[in-house]
Amino acid sequence: MDICLCNPSTRVFKALLVASFLRYQMASGSLPEDLVTEILLMLPVKSLLRCKSVCKSWYTLITKPSFTTTHLNCNAALKRNHCILIKRFLQERNKSVMSFLSDEISGDDYVPPTEITIPHSNEFLQMLGPCNGLVCLTDHDDIILCNPSIRDFKVLPTPFFNYPKGLFSSTMGVGFGFDPLSNEYKVIRIAELHEDDESWGYRFHSVIVEIYNLSTNSWRGTDAVVPCVWFFPCSELLFNGHFHWWANDKDYGGESILSFHISMEVFREIRLPDVCAFPDGNERGFLVLNESIALLLFNPSEQTSFDVWLMTEYGVVDSWGKLFTIGPLVHVERPVLFLKHELLMEKVNGQLVSYDLKSQRLQELEVFKARGTR
Q1: Which PROSITE patterns match (predicted)?
Q2: Domain extents for the chain?
Q3: pTM of the model
Q4: In the chain, % of residues over pLDDT 90
């Protein structure tokens, strides 16, 4: 199960009445298109879903990434409530779904859990983001961009490059972000080139980087030289205009964070604390805490503990410091999100639990009860 914090705003409006009025005014030519856009930007997501069906021009407008970005900024200005977006795999129905869970349990802004079916579903699908209300879904074969607020999915074309004869690519890591300088959404694919070998199965050749631009719906190659990255849940993070992966430290040995600047398209490596210099059997999780990158070291077991480190100054290795240890906690598998003064985590059965950092209490959240969910 993957979780992220979104802002889909759902304040109650008379959306159908507004939509009918706007459509009438547009048909009569008495309402400029710019004014229609401004009014639609004021509507909450639930109303926009209905407005998508009013006419083709509205559907085109509402599904534009630029509209999504502007609408998100309007939501922030109005201080509408955030929601938690949960992605899980339903084994008994063999499909992946997303659900919104409001961070408020009462009032006009409450969002009841709703199920959004994801195309190309499988249990290995991972959610990256959010970025301006959009998320990226990937199992490292298919890559899908999604606007969950308006239930819009876009399956990206398969990268196609003329690799040297006899070499094949396999995805190692995927990143996703927005470039404010070019007003462009980008997807980054880090892949391994390898060659088939009759005795070894395959032989490693090199690591390549490919970038997708949403505006052109196409991939392009780069000359970037980067280390190998690892694909683990919660080990990939969008933060501070950069995307980050858990990676090898090719200069010093041990481990590092591979960082990619979305606008400048520049990679850099950020060393992890010396405690990560040698393999220790622990997994690494990267989350945002106190507007900084937090590193969580943990080894999933019957009783799991989480060592929490914080990089207080972005990119400065000496600013890493250990904050505290959480646990041991019974049957907790991995961390997923810091929210206010809580750490949300996933149990081995896929259930979501909340750990209060102040009271040190663990509470199971009634997000779903069906068995066989992740």
Answers
A1: FBOX
A2: 1-155
A3: 0.76
A4: 29
